[in-house]
Amino acid sequence: MAALCWINPLSWLLLKEIRLNLEYMADEAAIPDEQEKKTYQYLLLDISQSNNELPSAIPFNYSFLKTRIRMINRKRSQTTSVFKYLLILPLFLAIVTANQCCTDQQPLQSEIEKVFPKPSEVQTKDSSTTASETSETPLEVAEIMPEFPGGTEALLSFIKDNLEYPQKAIDEQTEGRVIIRFVVNSNGEISDPTILKGINKNLDQAAIDVINKLPRWKPGQQDGQPVSVRFTLPIVFKLT
Residue 63, Cβ neighbours under 10 Å: how many? Predict the structure, then answer.
């Protein structure tokens, strides 16, 4: 115990008390009856005088010997004796616990620092950049949707007049519908045409080409401000 808790001075005091209690127990066991007490005490005195010739694990110094003789002559009940010995156990546990807390304090602090990093280590994102990126993110639906100049009829007419049917698709008699999505930005300009559902490479490219030819639109609005909005449009390829 003293080896484990050597830094705690109470551990050495407890070790001394344990040794002394062991001597009390040995004295009690060595005396068969009250009549032998005097004989046993004289024996202890003789051993203490010849201590240099008979080494012992427990030194026979004056303080130890005086205390042992006083305990031999003291009349104690068995209950009181046992109770005193039992007091050693909680004292031992208290010392070990205190020593363990001191030993584990630094690792615990390290774990807390790992879980909760210092404020200087926390990386923050630029709020102005975030706001800018959010404002440029196209909306799926706006309070006021983008509008082609002249309305829907004008849009269909523009596509019909500007759509180029690939010759290869004509030769192969290929027909179908291409679903295309594009962005009408806050300035009304067209960007990022993307095929959602295509037919083949030639017809898909023809749909992208006609969308890129679209003039500037009236931009959509959200909260009274122009915003970028995604717009989806079907383009039908049909031979006549």
Answer: 9
Mean pLDDT of successive 10-residue segments in the chain (240 residues)? 53 60 60 60 60 46 61 59 58 60 47 40 38 65 93 92 92 93 95 94 94 95 94 89
Q: How many CB atoms lie within 10 A of CB 145?
A: 15
Which residues are CB-neighbours of 186 under 8 A, at least 6 positions away?
Answer: 219, 225, 226, 227, 228
| CATH number of this structure's domain 136-237, picked from the four choices 2.30.40.10, 1.10.530.10, 3.30.2420.10, 3.40.640.10 | 3.30.2420.10
Is pTM beyond 0.85? Reply is no
CB of 163 closer than 8 Å to CB of 235: yes
| Cβ count within 10 A of residue 69 | 16
Question: Per-domain residue ranges for the chain?
Answer: 9-115, 136-237
User: Length of the chain, please?
Assistant: 240
- Residue-wise pLDDT for 157-178, tens only, equals 999 999 999 999 999 999 999 9
CA distance 201 to 169: 10
In whole angstroms, give the CA distance from residue 106 to residue 102: 8
